[in-house]
Amino acid sequence: MKKSISRLFLVGAISSLALVSCNNDDDNKGNGNTNPSGFVANPADFKGELKSGDKITLDATKTYYLTGKIQVNDGAVLTIPAGTKIIANGGTSSFIAVAQGGQIYSNGTAEKPVVFTSEKGTPGSWGGVVLCGKAPINKAKTATAEVSELTYGGDVATDNSGSITYTRIEFAGAIYNSEKEFNGLSLFGVGSGTKIEYVQLYAGSDDGVEFFGGTVNTKYIVSNENEDDQFDWTEGWVGINEYWYGKEGRNKGNRGIEADNNSSNHTLTPISNPSIKNATLIGLGATYTGEGENQAMKLRVGTKGKFENFVLANWAKGIDIEHDATLAWIPNDLFLKNVQFVNVTTEATGKTSAGLAVDVSKAYAKANNNGAGAGVDVPTWAKGWTRGL
Question: Domain containing 278 — which CATH number?
Answer without folding.
Answer: 2.160.20
